[in-house]
Amino acid sequence: MKSEITELPHPDRAELRLADVLFALSDPDRLDIVRQLADGPLDMAQCHLSDPNVPKSTKSHLMKVLREAGVIRNEPLGRGRRLSIRRDDLEARFPGLIGSVLGAVGTVHADGSGVNDR
Amino acid sequence: MKSEITELPHPDRAELRLADVLFALSDPDRLDIVRQLADGPLDMAQCHLSDPNVPKSTKSHLMKVLREAGVIRNEPLGRGRRLSIRRDDLEARFPGLIGSVLGAVGTVHADGSGVNDR
Questions:
Q1: Dihedral-angle region of residue A58 (phi above 0 means left; psi in -120 to 50 means alpha; beta otherwise)
Q2: Are A28 and A99 in contact (CB under 8 A)?
Q3: Per the CB < 8 Å rule, is A31 touching B20?
Q4: A38, B13, B17, B86: most buried, per Cβ within 10 A?
Q5: Which of A81-85, A110-114, B13-17 has the lowest mean pLDDT?
Q6: Nearest Cβ partner of B22 from A22, A93, A95?
Q7: What is the tens place of the pLDDT at every residue in B77-107?
Q8: Which residue of B has its CA nearest to A27?
Q9: Strands laid side by side in the A80-85 sheet
Q10: Nearest residue of chain B to residue A69 (CA atoms)
């Protein structure tokens, strides 16, 4: 079986649009993914949704919205895919925004709900 | 003719949800409204959309999304309605968020596009 490791398109820093970035962040599951990436890049397989029964296609779509808005980078690495927040690009275009969102997400999940159950 | 000045419901500070706030801010027209309110409250009639042909019902809906998410307050004042950003509530719940969005919106409109044409 051949694994399909493809380079996906990412918007350039100059192409990032505030409304798109905010929309990508406006969903609890997508916020959860971003929160998991707050401490550094993760392999796609390490990134979990709070509901483990979510289909893989749904997870892929959540990643796609985040990537196309320029919030995350999704790159092939070995046989997997490496996800990371585009902090430098976001900070350059929208200073303080991603930091405030990550801070708020930490607050939202202060009750321990959500991710990192496995 | 009797003007209908009604008190509209607003979520309490503790009820504000990050995803809802980000969603409310994820639309160019709604961002434009928020930008106009950045320097202080405005009467509804002073708040203009970039496209003057937008129906009044659309404008009302944009205001509703912003109000229901807790981004703006929409209160009766005299014969009109007074709109304001709920800065204290937003700052208390999501520190730095509304400031970074307003800063970024200023950047987005640095080309002079958008509002304040009248």
A1: alpha
A2: no
A3: no
A4: B86
A5: A110-114
A6: A22
A7: 988 899 999 999 999 999 999 999 999 998 4
A8: B19
A9: A42-43, A80-85, A72-77
A10: B26
